[in-house]
Amino acid sequence: MEWIERLNNAIGYIEEHIIEEIDYRKAAEIACCSSYHFQRMFAYLADVPLSEYIRRRRMSLAAADLQGGDQKIVDIALKYGYSSPTAFNRAFQSVHGIAPSVAKSDGVSLKSYPPISFIITVKGVVEMNYRIEKKGAFRIVGVAEPLEKEIEKNFEIVPKMWERASANGTVQKLSEMMDSQPMGILGVCIGIDKEEDRRYFIAVASNQKTGGSFEEYTVQPFLWAIFPGEGQCPSAIQELEKQIITDWLPTSGYEYDNGPDIEVYLDNDPLNAKFEVWIPIVKKK
User: Fold this and answer.
1) In sequence order, what E strands does the chain have?
2) How far apart are CA 39 and CA 32, in angstroms?
3) Sequence-ordered alpha helix ranges (H) in 116-234
4) What are the residue ranges in the chain where pLDDT is below 50?
5) pTM for the whole thing?
6) Quick check: 276 and 226 in contact, CB under 8 A?
7) At what angle do helices 151-167 and 35-46 cross, to 10 degrees?
8) CA angle 124–235–132, rounded 5-degree value
9) Do 10 and 28 meet the contact criterion of CB atoms below 8 Å apart?
10) With helix as H, strand as E and coil as C, how does 95-118 read?
11) 3 three-class SS
12) Residues 209, 210, 216, CA angle at the centre, nearest 5°?
């Protein structure tokens, strides 16, 4: 399928530039999506973050270089983008479990990670409920923090945001300001199509004045695929997002549009949360 072909072409780009600094935005352009969506799709399909995949590939090649010639360790480190021998040593040990100096010895056991490729696997074991809705623009108010380029780092930032917002009364204050659709506490990732202004909001849809206490943002009109779910968060919502990307999106006839991702929390029970995942979509051309 074209969707999978584009992902594999992006992997081809990464492989061609594996000893250079990988331009995530360029790889995402080849896959016809934002760098955020490309990283997320890769992580869910490959079960490993993109940055870790690139590290494993480089250390696989570095191991072959160490065993296949008389190159100095410092030169191999520089070849794969490590200006510090200490950083290279740490990366090499994280993959192979031994120091680069030991890898030069005969009979040493090393790991090899070949280039990845994606194929469509038709499963359909678990049903998915969803609806497609066109929504007009709506205003949100809340608190926001910048997100990192590598999305796995955001798996630490976002939960800490929620912990603080729950503990300091922010969630309760926002609940009192909620007066328009979508009704619920929102987690909104904006700036997905931009590298310089990617932020995560904990917010509500509201027409009330912020009074200087909160930031505001207008979500533009989009076509949304909306998926309901429930369970203990964040694991339940992450599992639903993975299912959307691996099961629904490849065969849906849609692809990601460059809009925000939205989580709508319909209640405040973390042990049995009810929520919706909204993804902006556009018909495949």
Assistant:
1) 131-135, 138-146, 185-190, 199-205, 215-219, 222-231, 254-256, 261-265, 273-283
2) 12
3) 151-167, 170-177
4) none
5) 0.80
6) yes
7) 100
8) 50
9) yes
10) HHCCCHHHHCCCCCCCCCCCCCCC
11) helix
12) 105
> ∠97-10-90 over CA atoms, to 5°?
20
Tell the residue number behind the tokens 């678990």, with chain if given.
126
Helix (H, G, I), strand (E, B) or coil at 178: coil
Whole-Å CA distances, 191 to 172, 198, 232? 26, 4, 27
Length of the chain, please? 285
Residue 269: per-residue pLDDT:
64
Scan for tokens 């992580």, then name that residue.
Answer: 43
Residues 262 and 188 sit within 8 Å (Cβ to Cβ): yes
**For residue 184, which amino acid is it?**
G
Q: Give per-residue pLDDT as tens, 35-70.
A: 888 888 898 888 899 999 999 999 999 999 998 778
DSSP code, position 184: S
Structure tokens at 149: 């380029």
Query: Of the candidates 63, 214, 204, 39, which has an alpha carbon nearest to the alpha carbon of residue 144?
Result: 214
Q: How many Å is the Cα radius of gyration of the chain?
A: 22
Give the whole-angstrom CA distance, residue 145 versus residue 157: 9
For residue 204, what are the CA distances in angstroms to 178, 215, 218, 263? Answer: 6, 11, 11, 11
For the chain, the average pLDDT equals 88
154 touches 191 (CB < 8 A): no
- Which residues are 229's β-sheet partners? 275
Q: How many CB atoms lie within 10 A of CB 148?
A: 12
